[in-house]
Fold:
Amino acid sequence: MRCALSIAGLLLLAGCSAAPHSRAAGAVASLAVRPVEWNAASAPVGKVSAVADAGDVVAVFADDGVSILSARAVVARDTHVKGWTTGDTIDATDGVTRWIVGIDEAGRVQRLKGLTAFEDVTPRYGLAGRRIRSATMVGKGKVGFLLDGQVVLAGASKLAVFPTSTFTMFAGGGGFGAGVSKDAIDVINGTNALVTRFTLPGVTWAALDAKGRLYAATPRAVYAADSGGALALVYDAGHEGIHGLVASGDRVWFADRGELGVVEGDHVAETTGANLATDAKLQASPSGDVWVIAAGKLQRYSALGGAAPIGPALTWGSSVAPVFARSCASCHQPDGVSGVDLSSEAAWQSKRALIRERVLVAHTMPPQGHPISDADREAIHAWIEGAAGRP
Structure:
């Protein structure tokens, strides 16, 4: 705590000089990002308020309902709830499966069921009749729910309740939860229920990476917990413009005026010319990407040259998934009429010999009435040839 306070004081005293953790001081590397296609057909999804993804499946929460996408194609729309506040992926009440959930404007936890619709599961967590503000994973089998005046950690059949000051947000990861209040962050250990307070004047955001390391941001600076457990400065923007901080695995993204930044360990990189809206909202993706919501529109970005390399999943996503959305999705969803699920890269990997025979050699797939272009067949061919060299 003492370290955090002294750093905040140094920032105030620095004035216009270049702080040692600033872009001007040469401590911030250049970050290249690329937009990631998540809606191959550019299907309308409404005015977006939140998003949650579990790899190939994405739920986009909007003012007119939820759009459910698989392999970048809209496969269902659920309009029975019109207003949503947040979305995330959490462990189910069995502690084994993972659910995509949204928090509606009534404060209920709704989970995606069968790629078709959402259902209220608030009672399953022992929270019936309570108004939920957000839900986030704290650790394996343990979900943190933010309510007014308290945080509830739900694991198996047990509930742990933590009375709190008014948290503006609650983040989770690596077995810990972190709640932000005025000038402080309370970190809850999900195993032993111990609470540690970090004082940081002006703090607005907190994030926990997959190892449970704490990151925090004020409108001017980003901090990370050091080896001694104190908050240490990792980035000084030199102005008050930071407006988001989320952890995607071991990568932490922040928004700084119109730019995107990444913290990996103690290394910081930031874009130049990203031109984000200065009030854009960030949401994490388990892939290491970041979702950006601004003026009701949704974008997704991936860092180039970072710790998470572009691998087979992105190759499949950029080359095969759009073909799947155009020519295969109507029959080959998990509950599709064909009985063969091809909505993920893993499914294509396991059936690539059969796909080669049916699509590229015999031309019996797609069936009559579902045309496919030569360019799309070539995209499948290129991916299969590349996939053959991968495990």
